[in-house]
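Lab notebook, bench 4. Still working through the backlog of constructs that have no structural model yet. Next entry is a single chain of 777 residues. Request: give me the structure tokens for it.
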Amino acid sequence: MLSDADREFIRRDPQIPGLSFALDERSIADWISENWDDIDRQSVTSTFIRYKPGRSCLVSFRAEQHGLPLSFAVKCFGHSAVEKWKRLQTHVKHRRGQGQPPIIHPSMSVIAFQRHDDPQLRSLRRLAYRHGERKLLRELLPDSPEHWPARITELRYNPERRFVGKLTAKLGPVGVLKCYSKPRFDAVMRTGDHRSLHTLGASTQHHAIVWPWVEGHTLGDLLRSGTATEMDIERTAVVLARLHAEPSTLYRTNTSHGQLNRIRSLAHNLNHLVPELSARMCSLLPVLERQLTSQPERTSMIHGDFHADQVVLSDDHATLIDFDNLSIGCPHSDVASWIAHLEWLAVAGELEPNSVDRCIKAFVSAYRESPIDTHPAEITPHLAIARLLLIDRPFRLRLPNWPQKMLHLIDRIERDVLPSTRAPRIRPDGGLSKGRSPQPISPDPAMPMLSEALDPRSMTEYLRTSSPALSDELGNFDVESVRVVKHKPGRRCLIEYALRSSVSSTIARRRSLLGKVRAKGLDKHSYSIQQALWNTGFDDLASDGISVPRTLGTIPDLHMWLQEKVPGQVVTELVGRVEGLSLAPRIAEALQKLHETNVPTSRCWSFDDELAILTKSLPVVAEKHPSLSGTVYEILEGCHDAVANMSDHPACGIHRDFHPDQILVDGDRLWLVDLDLYSQGHPAIDIGNFCGHMLESAVRNEHGCSILNDFEEIFRQDVVMRMPTLNTDDIHHCTTLTLARLIILSSQYPTRRAYTPRIVTATHQFQRSRTTPSCLR
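Model written out:
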């Protein structure tokens, strides 16, 4: 029977027509009973879900057939996977072999198949009959005829991914058979050389491996039964530490960066399940990335998927098993994985919660006695990653109230990673407190509309009527809170709105958006430019990973237009690290895309406009700093010379305020923001603006100036390579104009005035020598 949360999730993904059918155990039980022989309807139970938004959903089931256990899967396909669905239908049509055939529901694009008809694990066909089992074992174990008569019993079956079976001969278990999908088999075979990878036999034709049997009980089984001792846990820690201390002889790596990418992908999928959870996961990623990069780099051989079921204990020793993910990586990730899985056993009700802390303390204490250099603080980000990778388990295992369980898990992670974070208080009726009172700001006579723009109740009504897209996605929503991001009295105000929609009693959804208010009226130009860019290849699914935020409507009465708030970290926070240098070519690519897209606009920005600003304001700087007066006027004269020497170049659409604060990095995606000044102009203006900001930032950041200078140089060289029609002298001239403008800004802001003399000196040197200022070398 479908829960309210299931129905809400199904409603959000209309692209998969068979979703409600595949998730309904009762409907599936009736369907397979009509098509397969002797199915016990009451025994049909779903065990886990694998979901790809808009494309497919696979549900694994257990049942009884002829009084024996049966594993089967039901998979439904979305409209975007029509070719895969057609190929599968053709495969079923031409199927040969024994066992119950797959069944198809054509109108809903749904298929049900038993283990022996798994389309990705073709070797399982042999397991449909006894003769096939013997034939498979003869091919896998040609030198061990004593094992050919062994019976194969299922231990675990992950449809389309992996089958694990126990080989039992007359005298007992002799091995473990693993049948893999081709990509997974190839990955295991590419791991490298290590004693743990010793096998009894393997077949590239069948994508199958036979591993030795290890006698004993897994620590997981002992924990679930309540018979695990402190000694068992300590032995587990010691055997893991021994693995970490072994010399690295493997080829495969398992990096924290790769795990963060898996979390990004998971967050994208979860947007269809619990949208609030997806947003909160994305907000954690930059924090975790900063914590990881601030740690000393540690690498060793690691298990890669370590938990209590991956160690077998006998009377005198512990043995690690299941080395499918053996690789080179950070040893803390194995420790974190063990802890996270242990906590999960408590969440799932398989382990007493009060025993978890004791187990963790015993494990960590024993592990620290090993020669592996470790510190508790270094495990924290790895533990957050391990927990995040398990966060969709309540849904995948179809636990009751799965949205709430997932939100409880993210609450725990946020408390550990962000000590100041507090989860929102939920009232007994499932709702949240009403919108917070307006945020106070200084009175602004030029912007009287701000009183309404900062009132949650007023904005709720405005947004419901002005943004059909929000209403379509969130249904009946409210403004939960209002925050002024930036306010320039008499000119403009940027406001963040946190929205909340309770579509059902079991799932709360949140969304944040930004409202841009302009004193002199609605900025229709900026709105239309951003909307046009979104519609011409800058949307949130752009394959090159370069996007702009989606526009969400206008409120003319408030002089406001709306856009989605996007996740990410500003480039400014990343460029000061060596790892950030890899962003420079990506930013050059983003700028190239913006210029080549060339969205039409009636606004133009010329070098005469640039000179007008400098001619008006640089003399004011000279007056405030008499000792710099001569140099400032030389800079101004040099700017006039620079403009006079600019070459002709076709104008294109330019950002006009392109600098590191205008780019957000969200994993592999770059977001270009704040396009309010978008105009037709010389492309070198954007390039020089970015380079000038990087050099000025280096002047103010004495300790990190070398890296910032390197970043600017890589960016500039990459731009020149991408845009060969540009004259390098033009880029130098535009960089000079930007540095001169930044002299003006430094003199206007109290926090930057102390740097004005250094910026003047650097600009003068750059202008005259055409090389990096000596103060930055």
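Notes after review: The chain has five domains: 4-117, 120-213, 245-417, 450-564, 569-776. The chain has a mean pLDDT of 88. Flag for follow-up if needed.
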